Amino acid sequence: MARFEEKQVKSILNIHKYVDQWFWDKYSLSVYQGCQFNCIYCYARSRKYNKNSGNNDIIYIKKDPAFILDRRIERARMLPPDIVAMSGVCDPYLPAEKKHRKTRDCLEVLEKHRWPVHILTKSPLVLRDTDILANIAKETWASVTFTITTIDSKMAERGELRRIRNVDDRVESFIIDNMDICDVESFSGISI
Ligand code: SF4
Description:
This protein has helices at 65-75, 97-100, 102-113, 130-139, 153-159, 169-181; strands at 3-7, 14-15, 27-28, 32-33, 58-62, 84-86, 117-121, 142-148, 185-190. It is α/β, with parallel strands linked by helices. The protein is globular and about 50 Å long. The structure holds iron/sulfur cluster. The site of iron/sulfur cluster has 9 residues, from loops.
């Protein structure tokens, strides 16, 4: 059972030296540190990103990420709008997001400033925020990549310690159809 702790951070937006060739992002942000999904192959479990290495039982919830992001963008003189990847070291739609809504709060800030966004997730909870994603898509660009690790459900059980969902193409189609309706680009990311 994951335990949650609040964490004060000074900054929330990571600026990359180069645009990421896989995810096209110049910026990234993670509103959580640690991930409830706890996939066995994930670098977010390493000591570099989580001091509870190999064990994501403590998830840090960053305090006021939307306020910090808004202030960063407002005050920046040399910060051109570019794609923000959500997220780097957590799934932005881990189950706790349902209650804490940190990802949604940050999306509202990106919407306000008309910054494009690329969501990377394994969770159908992303459907909750199609209203904001549709607005961002209308004003600039929004994309959702829905990750499918494997179509072998036994393998998925071994790799994704806390099961995210059954491998079920109906879930994937549902998400992609919903994103298409609101003009948000959507992709399936398949790990081989
Ligand atoms: S859902 Fe993504 S960020 Fe979370 S543990 Fe799995 S691979 Fe890592």
